[in-house]
Amino acid sequence: LSTSALGAVASVEPQTGKILRHGVGQGVGNALDRLARWYLERAEELYPVIEIDAGRYGEVILTEGLTLDVDLWQEAAS
Q1: DSSP per position, the chain
Q2: Structural domain range at position 40
Q3: 29 found inside a domain
Q4: Is 60 left (phi over 0), alpha (psi -120 to 50) or beta?
Q5: Tens digit of pLDDT per residue, the chain (78 long)?
Q6: How many structural domains is the chain composed of?
Q7: Are 16 and 22 in contact (CB under 8 A)?
Q8: How many other C-beta atoms can be found within 10 angstroms of the C-beta atom of residue 45?
Q9: Which distant-in-sequence residues (6+ apart) come within 8 Å of 49 by Cβ?
Q10: Alpha-carbon distance 75 to 78, whole Å?
Q11: pTM beyond 0.70
């Protein structure tokens, strides 16, 4: 609703279709963002994955203790 300097009054009806589409689009976008974040958090809980190209050298640094139930020397001799 607006009033001009001469006293004319005009009102603008909102376009409910556009408002509804914008609201639905915003809601779907937020939901998909939250879903993507949830899947990324679950993937990080499983195990970290670092991909490198074949033939490249890399280093592995362990920050916690690790126990292996395999005799590596016996396996290597086989």
Answers
A1: -EE-TT--EE-----HHHHHHHHHHHHHHHHHHHHHHHHHHHHHHH-------TT-------SS-----S-HHHHHH-
A2: 15-46
A3: yes
A4: beta
A5: 566 666 676 666 667 777 777 777 888 888 889 999 999 888 878 776 778 889 998 888 888 887 878 776 776 666
A6: 1
A7: no
A8: 8
A9: none
A10: 5
A11: no
Amino acid at residue number 69? D
Residue from 27, 50, 29, 31 nearest 39 by CA: 31
Considering the domain boundaries, does residue 72 fall inside one? no
- Residue owning tokens 């279709």: 17
Q: Could you tell me the two tokens for 51?
A: 């991909």
pLDDT of residue 11: 64
Please check whether residue 24 lies inside any domain of the structure: yes
Residue 22 lies in a domain: yes
